[in-house]
Each structure stands twice: as C-alpha cells, then as structure tokens.
Amino acid sequence: MPGTENEKASQKKNKEPHRSVKTQLVRMLIEVFVIIISILLAFAIEAWWSEFKERKVEREILLGIREDFLYNSDLLDMTEEKHLQGLEASNILASMAGPEAELTIKNDSIEILIQSLRNHWTYDPITGTLLALINSDITLVENWELRKSLVSWLDLVKDMNEDELSQRNEVQQHLTPFLIEQIPLRTILRIEEVDSLINNFLPDYESLLRDMTFQSLIEIKRRYALNVLEELDLVRKECDKIMLLTEQELKKHE
Known about the structure:
The chain is mainly alpha-helical and 254 residues long. Helices cover 83% and strands 0% of the residues.
C-alpha cells in the first residue's frame, strides 16, 4: 500500500540522523582514546629513556667509586702499617724507659725506634668522584644505604685526619725539638753528610730513657697512635661496606 510505504520511508529518514550522530560519537571516542594512548605512550617512552640515561650515569659513577675505593683501601693498609710501626716503637721504648733504665739493644736499633717514634703520616684518599657526586646530586646513586655510607665515610676520614694532624703537631712541636737537644742530629734527621761532625759523639741513650720528659712524650705519642688506629678501624669498616655495596649495585647493571 502506498500509505504504508510512505510511512516506512519516513521512519527510515528519521532514524538516519540518529545513526549519523551515534557514528560520529563513536568516531570521536575512538579519536580521543587514540590521543590518550599516544600521550601515555609518549610519557612512557620519555620515562623509560630518562631512566635509561640515569642508570647509565649511575653505572659510570659506581665504576668511579669502585676504582677510587680500591686505591683508598690499599692506601689505608699502608697508612695502618705506618701507624702500627709508631705504636710498636712507643710500646717498646716505654717498656725500656724508667728511673733505672739500662740499654739492652744496640744503638742502631734504638735509633730506628726513635725514628719510628717521630714519624707521622696522614691518610690522603682519592675523593674526586665522591665529592662531585655529593655536590651535584647524590640521589643519582639509587641505593640509599650506599649513599649513607659514602657520606659517613667522609666524616670518618675527617675525624681520623684530625687525630693525625694532632699527632703531627705533637711530634713537630714537642718530640722532635726535645730529641734534637738530647741526641745527635744524625739520629733525628738521618743526614749522612753530618756524620763526620759527630763521629766522636756517643749518645747517652740510657739517660734519655730515664728522662721523665721523654717518658711523657712516649706516652703521648702512644695515645695518639691508639686514637688514630681506632679511627682508622672505623674508616676501614665503612670502606669495606662501600666496596661491597658498590659491587652489588654494579651487578644490577650487567
């Protein structure tokens, strides 16, 4: 029937705008979704690239720390040996000294002990990589415990250096001037050129060992050596910890 066909045609025309709106809405949602995905993907790529660069920088820092602390550890061994020599010399001389001291060893041996007594050393580690890291951004090292140890190690080295400096000042200002007055210049300074001037001079080491001032200076030197070695032990423990943590972090970059 003509009327029925017209009605169907009219209904079809009425539905077409609704379909068009629905299609456009779906298309817009798809476009928005694509835009959002593109933005998120761009952020993800940027974050990945940033993390990649940071990890590359961190690896270079860790390699520098490992190299520096391998050297610092060896230097610490040598420094400890020198301080132990000074402590041993002070212990031996202290055991020999007293009101009725008698010389039981050769002059050359006691000269070596006196030379060790007046020697002084300062631990001077490499800190370039570490200081550069702290002055820039220490958080470039991801491991919090390693960061903490690095800062702590610097403080411990500073404390140790202060004790070493105090020991050096004591030697230079008191011990060495006293010894120069008491025994030959050769014994104190080990200068071979002056031997001809003092060949006929035989130092009285027994009187030196009986001297209360010398005994006091020996004890002061001994206390300084003990203090330095105590600080050195703390520096060593922190150094070993840093080396262990650094190796662990480097394995994560393999």
